Task: structure prediction
Amino acid sequence: MTSRRLRAALLLAAFPAAAAGAVTLALKAGHRRLHVDRHRIELRPQPRRSCPDCRGDGGWWVDGANPEMEACGCWANRPTWRIRLLPVPAWPDEPPF
Result:
């Protein structure tokens, strides 16, 4: 194996780790939580720890006869992004031939 091919192979092997690091950094900077399952990929907003109103709790309790939590605008007004994945057909029980 030549040095050029070895260098290319090492770069290709390092690419998934670098891409995962970039995605993690982008999610931390964007204050979003990644959720992945077989049906969808979802990015949900998270409360900001540096928010002066909620201090990272995501809201506060409103007093009254029925106390409930009021969501803070640091995360409640931001959209949730979803990508629906195509369904994967089940494998047949019989062999194809």
The helical segments are 3-30, 73-76. The two ends are 41 Å apart (CA to CA).
